Amino acid sequence: MIVAEHLVKEFRLAERKPGLLGSLSTLLTRRHRVVRAVDDVSFEIPAGTKTAYIGANGAGKSTTIKMLTGIMTPTSGRCTVAGLEPYRHRQRNARTIGVVFGQRSQLWWDLSVPDSFRILRRVYDIPEPVYRRNLGLFRELLDIDALGSTPVRQLSLGQRMRAEIAASLLHDPAVLFWDEPTIGLDMVLKDAVRHLVNRAHRELGTTVVLTSHDIADIGAICDSALVVDHGRVVHQGTLKDLLRTADHRSVVFDHRDGTAAGTVRARIEAGLPGVRATPDDGGRIRVDYPTGRYTSRQVLTFLLDHFDLADWYAPEPGLEDVLRKIYGRARVPGDTPDGAGRTPDGAA
Ligand SMILES: Nc1ncnc2c1ncn2[C@@H]1O[C@H](COP(=O)(O)OP(=O)(O)OP(=O)(O)O)[C@@H](O)[C@H]1O
């Protein structure tokens, strides 16, 4: 079980004024502003679930994961992973968790991947059969042997990510924290990575916390969702519950009465104010309606009354639509650009 209780993380940033005089005055006055990256966040992630930690850029996801993995200490509040406060018990916590930060390597920069794995094997005291089984899987699915003896710093982004993912799974951790794990990976490797994590969950009961801007990753891996906006949790529940918050639904239909697409559109939009009708390339019409205003029955009845329907279906609302709505609200005019003043390694 992963628990966050009123978790807060603030960063103090020196205010910099532009120009030479500005730099001098910055040195003299030393004014600071505080960025509250994580703002009183509380949640419980049950063991054995696969949770997507979702939010727009700068919402506070990576900062939360850094506290859960012990890299950062909270400003206030607390969190526990399998009963341990990660920032107080970094060593013990490290045995329980496997971590990937797409933006930051967990491997030794000057060592080759096989050398890194040999060290990790000792650090985690991995039993021989487990080590062999996992290496076999990584050879088969991530083509890890092809990385050869090249030092990690000379690997391409995709090659490094393959090694990072393998390293995070090497010791069969109880909890995986994966922050943007598939950046730089091609489609085949993304599939392999999804297979590996789902296998670990199915066979070992691994708890997964995934941060990704790749909607397909979330759909292929996660069953639950935790959505943050401006450092605060705005939704926690199953992925299905999140999809049900969609404020628009759609009906797609084919008609056989030969009416021109433009006329069909005009007739629908006049008869059902607030509804949008869009012809697609295949000759079908997609009707998007606000759920607060119409039921699917009302929309369908209108279509049946006005057109000779050859076929119709109601697609499930997509995660992308739901997130676009949440992220759209998150953009406040005049917001400062995210990431300003970050330290190079992101550490506290
Ligand atoms: N080390 C740091 N020093 C100062 N500010 C920081 C630091 N790390 C993060 N921040 C700020 O905290 C806020 C949250 O950043 P965080 O990286 O947690 O967001 P995120 O949700 O992971 O974003 P993204 O999706 O872009 O990776 C941002 O405004 C960011 O600029």
From TrEMBL:
<keyword id="KW-0813">Transport</keyword>
<dbReference type="InterPro" id="IPR003593">
    <property type="entry name" value="AAA+_ATPase"/>
</dbReference>
<dbReference type="InterPro" id="IPR003439">
    <property type="entry name" value="ABC_transporter-like_ATP-bd"/>
</dbReference>
<keyword id="KW-0067">ATP-binding</keyword>
<dbReference type="GO" id="GO:0046677">
    <property type="term" value="P:response to antibiotic"/>
</dbReference>
<dbReference type="GO" id="GO:0005886">
    <property type="term" value="C:plasma membrane"/>
</dbReference>
<dbReference type="InterPro" id="IPR027417">
    <property type="entry name" value="P-loop_NTPase"/>
</dbReference>
<feature type="domain" description="ABC transporter">
    <location>
        <begin position="21"/>
        <end position="255"/>
    </location>
</feature>
<dbReference type="GO" id="GO:0005524">
    <property type="term" value="F:ATP binding"/>
</dbReference>
<keyword id="KW-0547">Nucleotide-binding</keyword>
<keyword id="KW-0046">Antibiotic resistance</keyword>
<dbReference type="InterPro" id="IPR050763">
    <property type="entry name" value="ABC_transporter_ATP-binding"/>
</dbReference>
<protein>
    <submittedName>
        <fullName>ABC transporter ATP-binding protein</fullName>
    </submittedName>
</protein>
<dbReference type="Pfam" id="PF00005">
    <property type="entry name" value="ABC_tran"/>
</dbReference>
<dbReference type="InterPro" id="IPR017871">
    <property type="entry name" value="ABC_transporter-like_CS"/>
</dbReference>
<dbReference type="GO" id="GO:0016887">
    <property type="term" value="F:ATP hydrolysis activity"/>
</dbReference>
